[in-house]
Amino acid sequence: MAADQGLTMTQLGEALGISKAQVSRLADRGMPTTSVEAARAWRAKNLHPSWSEEARGGTAGEGDAGSSDYWRSRARKEAAQAEREEIALARDKAALVEVDRVHRALYAAHRMLRDQLLSVPNRLAAQVVGLTPAAAADLMRAEIRRCLEGISQLSDEALTRLLDEGGAK
Q1: Angle between helices 20-28 and 9-16 (to 10 degrees)
Q2: Per-residue confidence in pLDDT tens, the chain, 169 aa
Q3: 24: buried, middle or exposed (CB in 10 Å: 19+, 13-18, 0-12)?
């Protein structure tokens, strides 16, 4: 093989700028070892652009533009993947929530508060008959406070139940 023209694996590796072991691995994949030119041609055709100068288009000066485009593209891709993973991690840690889900939960809580406040007159109508205006105002104030405290004590679980029951669309 390489010995046919007096070219050893070590010499071929030195000419290509790779190790003897890498020459052996590439030879196992089909790279010719009979000449440096044949090996370079095979590498240009069969290797990914980032793996060899030949695959990038020849000498360092000739392949720089294509190679730098590749590396910029790869860096953008890896940055986007890292950003997606950070978002997923934040979501898993409950440090990030979906805006739409928050809007639906707020809508459900506001609707519940509105319904409770609008029902105050019906609940208190019979109780305010015969009361002084100050006593009626105190009774209404206490009922409104009860409604507001109930809303302020809604837990995440209660809001989730509201959403799951179709409480808001």
Answers
A1: 100
A2: 444 455 888 999 898 888 899 999 999 999 999 999 999 889 888 887 766 666 555 544 444 555 678 888 888 999 999 999 988 888 788 777 778 888 888 888 889 899 999 999 999 999 999 999 999 999 999 999 999 998 888 877 777 776 676 544 4
A3: middle
90-102 burial, b for 16+ CB within 10 Å, e for fewer? Answer: eeeeeeeeeeeee
Q: What is the rounded distance in angstroms from the CA atom of residue 69 to the CA atom of residue 62?
A: 13
Report the alpha-carbon distance of residue 156 to residue 16 in Å, rounded.
Answer: 64
Residue 144's CB is within 10 A of a number of other CB atoms, namely 14
